[in-house]
Amino acid sequence: MAYRHVVGPRTHVFADLATLMAKATPIRSGDRLAGIAAESAEEMMAARWCLADVALSEIVARPLIPYEDDDVTRLILDTHDQAAFAEIAHLTVGDFREFLLTASSETLARIAPAVTPEIAAAVSKIMRNQDLILVARKCRVVTKFRNTIGLPGTLAVRLQPNHPTDEPKGITASILDGLSYGCGDAVIGINPASDSIRTLSSLLGLLDDVIQRLAIPTQSCVLTHVTTTLDAMNRGLPVDLVFQSIAGTQQANASFGVTLAILKEAHEAALALKRGPLGDNVMYFETGQGSALSADAHHGIDQQTLEARAYAVARVYRPLLVNSVVGFIGPEYLYDGKEIIRAGLEDHFCGKLMGVPLGVDVCYTNHAEADQDDMDTLLTLLGAAGCTYVMGVPGADDVMLNYQSTSFHDALYIREVLGLKRAPEFAAWLHEIGLADGEGALLPGGAGTALLTAAPDLAA
User: Fold this and answer.
1) Which of 31, 141, 436, 451 suits 100 as a labelling partner, its CA being 20 to 30 A distant?
2) Which residues are annotated as a binding site for substrate?
3) Is residue 67 a part of any domain in this protein?
4) Which residues are annotated as a binding site for adenosylcob(III)alamin?
């Protein structure tokens, strides 16, 4: 079915819904690489005007990838909440934007199961940055394991103590450094340099030891492949959260060596461990615009819509945490700071609108046309938008993955500027051991002493 929109003497024709959505997308290098981006600003605006008139019911009825060809499409349609959709089914994309701008948090929570990724992506394409921030701020998604993530007025931090050789002392030093800055309430999560079960066993033991010795109300995760984590659970190793990178098409997930059946098996295995005293959100997913295109699994669909489809995969497994590693894949997909900033706001908006506890790794690679000032801007905008969590990396420079992210200091900055709190259980722990006052402000001096007094063996 073709779509048309007239601008002056010219009629713009878009062959199908996938083409229309791609042409309506703010320009980014990945869509240009795929040959699906708008060829001019006029064509982009014509596509947005046209998209605004498309009914939400039509988007649901016309899947971008056929039902019979893709298990993610089947998942989206088979889990679509028809009762919740009845509230918004009569709206066009343009109407839906107006609805979202005035809707309450309660209304947004009620309709979240009705929002397919294609609906979320479509409406984001006709929204300004301020629209994305305003609506996302009203979407609250609360999850629990050993603490409570996503409460209004909070921003959690993943403490990311990566080491290029998985050296335990180096990782421990980074963990203590991050804790001394009040980071780690989202998760203490390590990207291992090796994917071997021996390394995984060592790192899981290290993280569990630190959390137990210090009695930290947080969770751990080693970000290895889901099948390796399944092996670890079968061996009785201390697994809190199951991690996996996911994408928005069956073929792209296959390139990661993962299927929906494997994710279901891992989810059920982690639930059976019952390690979360406060809740049973046991999954941690990461995503990123461009992953499907890099696997030649994009089906001619724009990368932002495919990113939103990954959130539909995540949503089914009720994760504790999901994050878009927004600038990590590289400038082939998000060329510069402006593209990264827009993508980060889109991803956060789409995830939250769909009821996913979305955080953002505010990051870039060293060959992108971006710098830390761009990351400061995105971090600030995401803080205003109610982002669930961000990364805390020593010095903002990940020495194992070789990319630039946000530091422990950056977390202090955004908390102070916007008055954002930590997860309440984690904040109470910081106060109890003498690292922070009752309001969450770090106390001057003595941070390392407080941690090592609580667990002196960690200094060995």
Assistant:
1) 31
2) 158-160, 191, 286, 361
3) no
4) 192, 244, 294, 400
